[in-house]
């Protein structure tokens, strides 16, 4: 592989598109001072990736673009392309590869490979693959010769590392160290986050446990209430069934008694028919008395039933009232809590909005700093100047606004004082004339309130404006400091990095605050929703209880009870009167028929049994009615509140249920729920989410620590490889240096020495040079030519140990005399078959050593031009002149 050609357009002194074709041997570039021959070397160095303007002998990178002359206009860009002849087998059949670089005046830069856009990294990887170092040890100038002589031993080691390919390993090591450093920062940050999460986990776990206990208690309470209502519903239904059976049996007894009574009455009627008019008037009175008494007892039973119903309804009404009041109090407490939570929610939302705005501002500032870090000094300087200009304009506007605010405040205060005087005068007039001033006082208070409100608002705006003004002034001072320090590139970058770290930490803190506020808002919202849902349910229950008003029924039953008791008393009095009359007539006239008396006694006996059974039936019907009411209440709860169907109620298994145990458990659940109070049902979900994050971060820390250990192992492997390469490279270069030094200094001794053999990673390399007949301990004691020749020996030793496809020597032999120059040319001839050489020189001996001469010239007001002559061309010209 060798450098086949260089195409230059608009670079430094080359105004036109210039193509230079090189041979694979020794190419010599010559020309007078200022013609632009060294610009050829700069062009090659620029494409190979040089980023320092000083290396290209300019103040800034844009200076490499052709600046124009009296006759030629300046160029808008500089472009250089290098074409390499390569081994087709190594590059998939490609015989030629080109790399290029283009720079515009606005600072935009582009890299090309085979005419296609690429990255600088792609170009560097290609050059590294073909043996051209990143630091371009293949390009040697006269200044670099001096640098080698003046360099420290550690710098000599770095030169050997670059040539021997150790640099990629050091880059890998540096990359691994940066990853370790970054990983340690991530671990530290993760541990900080873990610490914060740990603080939140404990209270959140307690809330989650409380919510779980509350949820279990609520579900258990609901289940217990359902079981109790179903148990009571079925119990009262079962009682009603038993009562119904008893009523059926009583009805059968009543039917039998009715038949017996009717039979006796028929027998009595038959006897009476036989007796005719001689029937006992006393018996008739007694019989009528018994009938009236029977009716009185029936009416009494009605009164008893009414009173029982009244008692049941009053107990139910008291129970409903207590439940209703209890639920109203619960609704009121929930509403107060919702109101309090709503105020907190509004405050948290406003706080979240402020934090989000602050976070957005900080992100923009961070983005601005990152942008500045990636830009060059000139662009950053322009950006900071624009920011300073904007801040000055902004501050000026705010200061004017501040003056207007103060003027408005003064005007309002003056107006307030004048208004007070006018109001006081008018108030005195009203008092003197004894006029009612109530409406006037309302107007006066309203005027004072308006003044107070406006002055307070203006003062608040004034404080905000002053705070904003102070913030902008501080920012302006920072920008001015940045502008002053921008030329100190390291200080400027360090300051940007400090600002970036500070803003990043602020962003982390605010992000955590935003996350906490968001979680709190969600939690508060869920609490409000839970309380509103509970209030809605309680409101439905209150509405149901309100609809269950029994006052009208109680009043009707009381009227019925009063009426029936009054009627019962009247009927009882009538029965007694009839009975007395019957006894009177029996005593007066006697009884003409014993049979009738016996029959009447039998009828009375049957009637007593009948009325007794009737009373039992009435009592059973009252009890059944009570049980039916109770059963209906339980049924209504199950249907309306819990949403059960009749089939579900009937199919519910109550075999193992105990009413007392259920009531006790309900009391326990209610006490637990009351003790727990309001809970956050989202706490469990939040806890699970936060706990998952905690585990993930912990796992991440473990992975980072594992990666750190792996990277440390990798670094040890890299260091072992670097040590091996340094040792082998040093041995090879040392041998070649001794050999080449002997060629350049016949009879002299040159050697390389490690300053610290125990630590090859940091050891320096000393160059020892002893020309024949001299004892020199330091290179600085050698003559200028000897020092240059020793440095050339060192460089050529590196070249021989680690060959590069080409080498460029820019006036490296300027300090050599003819004898030493002749030795260097002999060395060049010795090495020229191993690599391509491009030499920039003024020396005639060096010109003679070249295979092709490239003459660089520049006419006044024009750009650099190239003229090419081969060795054969010169020889033919010389032979013609000889003839």
Provide the descriptors you would attach to this structure in a database record.
single chain; 883 residues; alpha/beta; Rossmann fold; 6-stranded mixed β-sheet
Cα-to-Cα separation, first versus last residue: 41 Å
The total count of helices amounts to 18
**Pairing-aware structural class of the strands and helices?**
alpha/beta
Strand content: 5-15%
Q: What is the average of the pLDDT values?
A: 80
Report the strand count.
14
CATH architecture call of the domain at 2-138 and 806-882: 3-Layer(aba) Sandwich
Radius of gyration: 57 Å
Residue share in helices? over 70%
Low-confidence stretches: 275-279, 589-593
Major sheet: order of its strands?
2-1-4-5-6-7
Shape by Cα distribution: elongated
Name given to the CATH homologous superfamily of the domain at 2-138 and 806-882? P-loop containing nucleotide triphosphate hydrolases
Per the CATH scheme, the topology name of the domain at 2-138 and 806-882 is Rossmann fold
Main sheet: strands, sense, barrel: 6 strands, antiparallel
Description:
This protein has helices at 37-47, 120-129, 142-150, 153-164, 167-275, 281-374, 377-432, 438-485, 489-547, 551-589, 594-641, 646-651, 659-676, 683-744, 784-801, 818-831, 844-849, 871-882, and strands at 2-9, 18-21, 26-30, 77-85, 96-104, 109-113, 116-118, 139-141, 749-754, 765-770, 806-810, 836-840, 852-858, 864-870. The chain is of the alpha/beta class. Among the domains are: 2-138 and 806-882, 3-Layer(aba) Sandwich (Rossmann fold); 350-545. The strands form three sheets. Strands 2-1-4-5-6-7 form a six-stranded antiparallel beta sheet. It has a six-stranded mixed beta sheet with strand order 8-11-12-3-13-14. It has a two-stranded antiparallel sheet with strand order 9-10.
């Amino acid at each position: 592989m060798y450098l086949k050609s260089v195409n230059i357009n608009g670079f430094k002194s080359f105004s036109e598109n210039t193509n230079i074709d090189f041979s694979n041997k020794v190419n010599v570039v010559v020309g007078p001072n200022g013609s632009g021959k060294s610009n050829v070397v700069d062009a090659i160095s620029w494409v190979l990736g040089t980023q320092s303007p000083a290396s290209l002998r300019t103040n800034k990178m844009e200076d490499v673009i052709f600046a124009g002359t009296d006759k030629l206009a300046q160029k808008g860009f500089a472009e250089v392309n290098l074409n390499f002849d390569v081994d087709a087998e190594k590059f998939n059949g490609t015989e030629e590869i080109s790399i290029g670089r283009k720079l515009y005046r606005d600072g935009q830069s582009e890299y090309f490979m085979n005419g296609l856009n690429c990255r600088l990294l792609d170009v560097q990887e290609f050059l590294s693959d073909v043996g051209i170092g990143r630091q371009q040890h293949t390009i040697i100038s006269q200044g670099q010769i001096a640098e080698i002589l003046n360099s420290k031993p550690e710098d000599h080691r770095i030169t050997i590392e670059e040539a021997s390919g150790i640099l990629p390993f050091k880059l890998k090591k540096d990359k691994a160290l940066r990853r370790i450093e970054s990983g340690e920062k991530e671990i530290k940050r993760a541990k900080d986050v873990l610490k914060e999460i740990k603080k939140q986990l404990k209270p959140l776990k307690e809330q989650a446990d409380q919510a779980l206990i509350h949820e279990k208690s609520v579900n258990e309470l609901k289940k217990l209430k359902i079981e109790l209502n179903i148990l009571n519903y079925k119990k009262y239904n079962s009682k009603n069934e038993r009562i119904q059976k008893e009523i059926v049996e009583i009805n059968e007894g009543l039917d039998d008694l009715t038949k017996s009574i009717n039979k006796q009455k028929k027998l009595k009627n038959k006897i009476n028919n036989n007796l005719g008019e001689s029937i006992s008037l006393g018996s008739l009175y007694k019989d009528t008395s018994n009938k009236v008494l029977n009716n009185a007892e029936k009416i009494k039973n009605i009164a008893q039933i009414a009173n029982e119903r009244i008692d049941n309804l009053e107990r139910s009404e008291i129970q409903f009232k207590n439940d209703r009041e209890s639920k109203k109090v619960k609704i009121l407490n929930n509403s107060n809590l919702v109101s309090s939570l709503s105020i907190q929610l509004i405050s948290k939302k406003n706080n979240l909005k402020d934090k989000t705005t602050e976070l957005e501002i900080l992100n923009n500032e961070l983005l601005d700093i990152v942008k500045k870090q990636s830009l060059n000094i000139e662009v950053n300087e322009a950006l900071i100047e624009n920011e300073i200009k904007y801040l000055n304009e902004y501050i000026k506007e705010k200061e004017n606004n501040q003056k207007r605010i103060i003027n408005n405040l003064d005007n309002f205060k003056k107006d307030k004082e004048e208004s007070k005087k006018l109001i006081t005068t008018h108030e005195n007039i009203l008092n003197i004339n004894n006029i009612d001033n109530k409406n006037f006082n309302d107007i006066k208070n309203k005027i004072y309130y308006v003044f107070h409100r406006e002055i307070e608002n203006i003062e608040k705006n004034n404080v905000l404006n002053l705070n904003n003004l102070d913030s902008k002034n501080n920012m302006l001072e920072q920008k001015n400091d940045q502008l002053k320090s921008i030329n100190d590139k390291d200080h400027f970058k360090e300051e940007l990095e400090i600002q970036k770290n500070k803003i990043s930490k602020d962003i982390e803190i605010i992000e955590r605050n935003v996350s906490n506020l968001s979680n709190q808002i969600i939690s508060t919202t869920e609490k409000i929703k839970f309380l509103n849902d509970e209030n809605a349910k309680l409101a439905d229950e209150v509405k149901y209880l309100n609809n269950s008003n029994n006052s009208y029924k109680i009043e009707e039953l009381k009227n019925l009870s009063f009426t029936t008791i009054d009627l019962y008393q009247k009927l009882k009095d009538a029965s007694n009167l009839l009975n007395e009359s019957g006894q009177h007539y029996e005593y007066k006239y006697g009884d003409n028929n014993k049979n009738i008396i016996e029959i009447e006694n039998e009828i009375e006996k049957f009637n007593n049994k009948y009325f007794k059974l009737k009373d039992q039936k009435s009592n059973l019907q009252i009890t059944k009615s009570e049980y039916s009411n109770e059963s209906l209440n339980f049924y209504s709860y199950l249907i309306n509140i819990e949403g059960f169907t009749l089939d579900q109620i009937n199919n519910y298994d109550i075999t193992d249920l105990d009413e007392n145990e259920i009531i006790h458990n309900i009391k326990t659940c209610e006490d637990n729920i009351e003790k727990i109070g309001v809970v956050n049902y989202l706490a469990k979900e939040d806890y699970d989410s936060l706990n998952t994050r905690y585990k993930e971060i912990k796992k991440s820390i473990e992975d980072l620590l594992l990666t750190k250990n792996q990277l440390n192992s990798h670094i040890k492997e890299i260091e072992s490889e670097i040590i091996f390469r340094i040792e082998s490279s040093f041995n090879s270069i040392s041998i070649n240096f001794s050999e080449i030094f002997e060629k350049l200094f016949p009879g002299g001794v040159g050697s390389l020495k490690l300053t610290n053999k125990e630590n090859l990673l940091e050891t320096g390399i000393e160059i020892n040079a002893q020309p024949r007949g001299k004892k020199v301990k330091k290179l600085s004691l050698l003559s200028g030519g000897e020092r240059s020749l020793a440095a050339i020996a060192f460089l050529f030793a590196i070249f021989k140990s680690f060959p590069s496809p080409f080498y460029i020597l820019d006036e490296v032999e300027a300090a050599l005399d003819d004898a030493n120059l002749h030795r260097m040319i002999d060395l060049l001839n010795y090495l020229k078959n191993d690599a391509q050489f491009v030499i920039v020189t003024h020396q005639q001996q060096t010109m003679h050593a070249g295979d092709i001469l490239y003459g660089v010239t520049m006419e006044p007001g024009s750009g650099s031009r190239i003229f090419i002559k081969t060795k054969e061309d010169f020889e033919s010209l010389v032979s013609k002149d000889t003839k």
